[in-house]
Amino acid sequence: MDFVSVFNAVILGLLEGLTEFIPVSSTGHLILAGHFLGFHPAGDAFPVLIQLGAVLAVLSVYAKRLVELARTFPTVPESRRFVFAVLVAFLPAAVIGAALHDFIKGVLFETPTVICVALIVGGIILLLIDRMPKEPRYTRLMDYSLPLAFKIGLFQCLAMIPGTSRSGATIAGALLMGTDKRSAAEFSFFLAMPTMAGAFALDLWKNRNALTASDAGLIAIGFVTSFVAAVFVVRFLLEFVSRHGFAPFAWWRISVGVVGLLGLLLVG
């Protein structure tokens, strides 16, 4: 591993950790950054494999609540319903993601223009949803029903288009289904755990014969960096969203998409 490769791995790890849980599309940012930096370790698997660092960040921040859920799962119906809600929301992405894996990686991940357009369109939609006058029907995470969770899971499938944003799709879907902003963001955290762990396992298996020792080292660097950055984001995001909503993220998406299109136009 040379210095430039290590530096690029750190940059992409920071991008992953800082953007995974906010509705701006971490994958879109990583693919565009890798495109313009000319940095593609482990091919298109790198952006997915370093996501496990962000997953562990959520696990570390929510460790106490996860232990409590595990402890009360056998005896408390509310805990069982919440765990099943997360699993039900995860199912659509698990099925569709496995079926369309090769198309997503072979076509969509190779088209930066699609990512830029998705960033812009998603930003506009997020702005509209954020400004919609609505009275939330669900303000408590543990009250999410199984049908509501399944609908949110269907929205998550939109994130298979790079640039859409997994958290953005789930949060937007939850808001449209009548949740408040804070609980929508928090449900997105919990849904990220099985979704991203599953994506990591699938990509690792698909690329098991192509990874080199150098790739593994760079992935480890990106993994650790994304973990540290994601811990910061998870700890402070809910309070930020409660105060400012999602408009700042929407404008960021639009700005990155426009800059990305200009960059593709000027330098290819």
From TrEMBL:
Keywords: Antibiotic resistance, Cell membrane, Cell shape, Cell wall biogenesis/degradation, Hydrolase, Membrane, Peptidoglycan synthesis, Transmembrane, Transmembrane helix. The keyword Transmembrane helix applies. It is an enzyme of class 3 (hydrolase). GO terms for cellular component: plasma membrane. Its EC number is 3.6.1.27. Its main location: membrane. The keyword ATP-binding does not apply. Belongs to the UppP family. This is Undecaprenyl-diphosphatase. It comes from Plantimonas leprariae. The lineage of its organism: Bacteria, Pseudomonadati, Pseudomonadota, Alphaproteobacteria, Hyphomicrobiales.
